[in-house]
Specification:
The structure holds two protein chains of two kinds. By secondary structure, chain A is an alpha/beta fold. Chain A has helices at residues 10-31, 73-80, 103-127, 145-160, 182-196, 205-218, 243-261, 270-277, 307-315, 344-354, 393-409, 414-418, 425-450, and strands at residues 3-9, 45-47, 61-63, 65-69, 92-94, 132-140, 165-172, 199-204, 287-291, 330-340, 359-360, 368-373, 382-390. A six-stranded parallel β-sheet of chain A has the order 5-4-1-6-7-8. In chain A, strands 9, 10, 11, 12 and 13 form a five-stranded mixed β-sheet that branches. In chain A, helix 1 (10-31) packs across helix 7 (243-261), helix 3 (103-127) crosses helix 4 (145-160) and helix 11 runs antiparallel to helix 13 (425-450). The longest helix of chain A has 26 residues, at 425-450. By secondary structure, chain B is of the alpha/beta class. Chain B is built from 17 helices and 13 strands. Chain B has helices at 9-29, 33-43, 64-76, 97-107, 109-122, 139-154, 176-188, 199-209, 217-232, 248-256, 275-278, 285-297, 319-329, 366-369, 396-411, 416-420, 426-444, and strands at 2-8, 44-46, 52-54, 56-60, 79-80, 86-88, 126-134, 159-166, 193-198, 264-270, 334-343, 370-375, 384-392. In chain B, the strands form two sheets. Chain B has a ten-stranded mixed β-sheet, with helices on both faces. The longest helix of chain B is centred in the N-terminal third of the chain and has 21 residues, at 9-29. In chain B, 53% of the residues are buried. Classes of the chains: A alpha/beta, B alpha/beta. The complex binds guanosine-5'-diphosphate (2 copies) and magnesium ion. Chain B: Acts as a positive regulator of hedgehog signaling and regulates ciliary function.
Chain lengths: 463, 447
């Protein structure tokens, strides 16, 4: 059994991470009714005190996680909240003053100040692992800590653990984000993701908001006062603003890691994800989509999805976690990760059924990777996660570049960045060039796909 | 004579387990002492307590599959794997041939070689080594290639037969064609013969002949194991004078893989029916052999949908002309065939149809191109059964497809960075493509 370490950075990173741990623990408790520390649990948790064999008892199970934030609020809430026993203080790193939504403060100033401590904490977590396979970094793109320090951590992970796969979950700001500098922060962070991550799962807050709006319509509850209570946290407690949104992201992570946590007849190793889905090193952005999605919300009384419906869902626009329509763009590769009672024949039948409505790049017409994990999410009989390496992702990137350009043209707020030690104007231009060339790479693929596919002329052999 | 089997990766370890299961059942059910004893000596050794232990080495880079296969074997109550005959690590090869071949292989060379050596030393007489693996993943393909290379060095004079499972057309490993091309091109220079099962073909047998609804790897593996066991179980050759204890690998290689350019062997068997309908089926040798011959020349891998229109072309036929006629008539030319007949009245069976010069190339006369083994012991519930191992153009099309798809991907250099990261360069790919194009060309021009 291999292990993975979750590194959650900044407000968003820690809030999403917290939802993930809550749901993961719930899932294991559901499967493992005897409550003994088992191998499945060992992939993301460690047994701290063998005197207590009951993993969800007091202080006997600890997460393989490192929590980083440059203010205390969120982390304090976590360590005082219902999940407190899952973390011990050696895993936490906080400061008091925050990054002021400034990438340079997070990346440069805090990055340099806390470099050694971060490495130390990650190393300590790694020492608990028998075979460390993967890092999951969770952060937002729009703020200062997650975006700046988070991407600094990514670079450190690459330096210190070059062989360990780095999968990043990045929350992209919505158009009307309350953080004015979010385009700067996001573009600066993008370059780091493009250069140092093995895979990035982009999630757009706007997309999550729209999904939740649809849930409200579906549940036909009037007005905004609807109680979007999710699969509620163990201690109950009042709902925080982002909880419903984070619940969706946490479910994405649950599905992604299920194969590593449980048995299945068609297991997918985490390192197979990048091997199969990333044909070119920079093009490692994988658009996630989930089914069921709407019934994740407890207040939504939707009928359970039949398997075939789920397969259609994950390709539809309304189920993507970024605002994009993969069916109208080009697939480089696609993974389908099923859970629960799905069969191999369900996978084959549905791929066959849907294949003709999707366009794949000419050199990868059969670019499917599939996996099945026998354990379904709590409360469901089956679920499906699709990861699409699809050129539709460039829409999100272009919109970001445009918003960045509007801000940069006015040189707005630049001085706040440049006053940080190590921050230079050239980093802005390099970051925006990196983004432009990324968009261009997707464009090229799109353009090439419009010409008729043909076989490459074969090697000639002298006979 | 004994065979040491090396099972590698998920597929190799799952198929291998089924193979020993079939062999063990068949040897126990067999009436003839000589047959049973030869089979047991070939594939098992007896522990001091009298338990049958397979002469197998299990290798994987992750523990789950090996654990599963070992406990399945132990549960059978008939045989088991050697307590210490396995090697596993914690993290798989991630579908990457280069990871298996360049990293895992060299890193664990000594441990893996030791395990094989121990099994070899346990054999009174070694017939050779059979390795079993898939070509599409990372461990079986990459580590399997590496291990084959080591065995070739350590046992330069032993026979090495690679049993390979070729992947489904799509759906499992996106880089499967790269991994397959790298595996096949390397093995071609190392192996004495390469025996291939295609998952798509076996899957169709499960669906159409065995009427299995939800087909699992278990079902597929049982069909593969059945066919493979029918080849490897003891049989009598024309000059063995009733002695079952011959070298099956040596004889297989010398009858089928007589030319270094041609090493790809396929298998088909008849009859293959659901056990439920077995009781109602009556088979005669002439009937079985007539079907099997037509399956061979029309390139049909199972006894359903045989194209009876296909005929062998007249004996004297030029190359270019012939290539044309292949497309129009679908005739499958053989370099060599080995027919294995098992069961009742086997010595009365005539195989004239397979001795027809029109089936073979002009440069190898039928008396050399065709061999036959027989055993009066009926195999695995079948009163009469015939298995054909064929070195023919059958695998040309799937091989060509594999190379074509991999080449299309390579033209865009897609996924290449995943391989260079472990030390496989673009030139290595080019070498592999070149050598397989050579194989394709050789088989295409067979006449
Ligand atoms: N989905 C989600 N987005 C969040 C959450 N918290 C903050 N954000 C978004 O993240 C961005 C601000 O980054 P934040 O994580 O607060 O800053 P940091 O603490 O400096 O990393 C804005 O785009 C917010 O909309 C959260 O819990 N969930
Ligand atoms: N017939 C058969 N094919 C298998 C089995 N397991 C995996 N495969 C095939 O093997 C390929 C994947 O390789 P696998 O053996 O899982 O990878 P490895 O463990 O890295 O060697 C795919 O083409 C699968 O179709 C099995 O039990 N039986
Ligand atoms: Mg596998």
């Amino acid at each position: 059994m291999t292990q993975s370490i979750v590194v959650q950075v900044g407000q968003c990173g820690n809030q999403v991470g917290c939802r993930f741990w809550d749901l993961a623990l719930r899932e294991h408790a559901h499967v493992n009714k005897k409550g003994v520390y088992d191998e499945a649990l060992g992939s993301f948790f460690r047994n701290v005190d063998s005197r207590y064999c009951h993993p969800w008892g007091q202080r006997s199970t600890c997460t393989l996680a490192v929590l980083v934030d440059m203010e205390e609020g969120v982390v304090n809430q976590i360590v005082q909240g219902p999940l407190r026993d899952l973390f011990d203080t050696t895993q936490l790193l906080t400061d008091v003053s925050g990054s002021g939504n400034n990438w340079a403060v997070g990346h440069m100033t805090y990055g340099s100040a806390y470099r050694d401590q971060i490495v130390e904490k990650v190393r300590r977590a790694a020492e608990h692992c028998d075979c460390l396979q993967c890092f999951f970094l969770i952060h937002s793109m729009g703020g200062g800590t997650g975006s700046g320090l988070g991407t600094r951590v990514l670079g450190l992970l690459e330096e210190e653990f070059p062989e360990v796969c780095r999968i990043v979950t990045s929350v992209y700001p919505s158009d009307e984000d309350d953080v004015i500098t979010s385009p700067y922060n996001s573009v600066l962070a993008m370059r780091e993701l493009t250069e140092h991550a093995d895979c990035v799962l982009p999630v757009e807050n706007q997309s999550l908001v729209e999904i939740l709006t649809r849930v409200r319509l579906l549940s036909r509850a009037p007005g905004p006062g609807v109680k979007a209570d999710l699969i509620s946290s163990p201690g109950g407690g009042p709902e925080k603003p982002f909880d419903s949104m984070n619940n969706i992201i946490a479910n994405l992570l649950l599905n992604l890691t299920s194969s590593a946590r449980f048995e299945g007849c068609l297991n997918m190793d985490l390192n197979e994800i990048s091997m199969n889905l990333v044909p070119f090193p920079r093009l490692h952005y994988l658009v996630p989509s989930l089914a069921p999605l709407y019934s994740l919300q407890a207040d939504c009384s939707m009928a359970p999805r039949r398997p075939d419906q789920m397969f259609s869902d994950v390709f539809s626009k309304d189920h993507q976690l970024i605002r994009a329509d993969p069916r109208r763009s080009l697939y480089l590769a696609c993974a389908l990760l099923g859970r629960g009672d799905l069969l191999l024949s369900d996978l084959r039948r549905n791929i066959h059924r849907l294949r003709s409505s999707l366009s794949f790049v000419s050199w990868n017409p059969e670019g499917w990777k599939t996996s099945l994990c026998s354990v379904a999410p709590v409360g469901h009989t089956h679920s499906l996660l699709a990861l699409a390496n699809n050129t539709c992702v460039k829409g999100t990137f272009s919109a970001l570049r445009d918003r960045y350009a509007r801000l940069y043209r006015k040189k707005a707020h630049l001085h706040h960045y440049l006053q940080e030690e190590g921050m230079e104007l050239s980093l802005f231009s390099q970051a925006s060039e990196s983004l432009s060339s990324l968009i261009e790479e997707y464009d090229l693929l799109d353009r090439a796909s419009s010409s008729c596919p043909h076989d490459a002329p074969r090697l000639q052999i002298a006979t | 004579m004994s065979i040491v089997t090396v099972q590698l990766g998920q597929c190799g370890n799952q198929v291998g387990q089924e193979l020993f299961d079939v062999i063990c059942k068949d040897a126990r059910d067999g009436q003839k002492r000589g047959y049973s004893d030869a089979s047991t000596a070939r594939f098992f050794h007896e522990t001091t307590t009298g338990d049958l232990t397979s002469r197998a080495v299990l290798i994987d880079m992750e523990p789950k599959v090996i654990n599963h296969s070992m406990s399945k074997a132990a549960k059978s109550g008939r045989w088991r794997y050697g307590e210490k005959s396995h090697f596993s690590q914690k993290q798989g090869s991630g579908n990457n041939w280069a990871n298996g071949y360049c990293v895992h292989g060299p890193r664990h060379r000594e441990a893996m070689e030791d395990l094989v050596r121990r099994e070899v030393e346990r054999c009174d007489r070694l017939a050779g080594v059979v390795t079993m693996m898939s070509v599409a993943g990372g461990t079986g393909s990459g580590v399997g290639t590496y291990v084959t290379q080591c065995l070739r060095e350590v046992y330069p004079n032993s026979f090495i037969l690679n049993h390979l499972t070729w992947p489904y057309d799509s759906g499992e490993v996106i880089v499967q064609n790269y991994n397959s091309v790298l595996t096949l091109s390397h093995l071609y220079g190392l192996s004495d013969a390469i025996l291939v099962h295609e998952n798509d073909t076996v899957h169709r047998i499960c669906a159409q002949l065995l009427n299995i609804k939800h087909i699992s790897f278990g079902d597929v593996n049982r069909v593969i194991a059945h066919q493979l066991a029918s080849v490897l179980q003891p049989a009598l050759t024309t000059d063995s004078y009733g002695d079952y204890s011959r070298n099956p690998l040596g004889e297989l290689v010398s009858s089928l893989a007589c030319h270094p350019e041609y090493k790809l062997l396929s298998v088909c068997g008849i009859p293959q029916v659901a056990s439920s309908s077995m009781a109602y089926s009556v088979f005669s040798w002439p009937g079985l052999l007539k079907h099997l011959r037509q399956m061979l020349i029309s390139n049909t891998k199972m006894e359903e949908g045989i194209d009876w229109q296909v005929r062998a072309p007249p004996v004297h036929c030029g190359g270019a002309e012939w290539a044309h006629s292949f497309r129009t008539t679908g005739f499958n030319r053989s370099l060599a065939n080995l027919l294995i007949l098992r069961g009742k009245d086997v010595f009365s069976a005539e195989a004239d149809g397979f001795q027809d010069a029109a089936l073979y190339t002009s440069w190898l006369p039928p008396r050399e191109a065709f061999s036959m083994w027989k055993s009066p012991v009926s195999f695995n519930q079948y009163e009469k059964s015939a298995t054909l191992v064929s070195n023919s153009q059958t695998l040309l099309k799937p091989l060509d497809n594999m190379v074509r798809k991999a080449w299309n991907m390579f033209a865009s250099r897609a996924y290449i960075h995943q391989y260079t990261k472990f030390g496989i360069a673009e030139e290595d790919f080019l070498d592999s493509f070149t050598s397989l194009e050579q194989v394709i060309s050789s088989y295409t021009q067979l006449c």
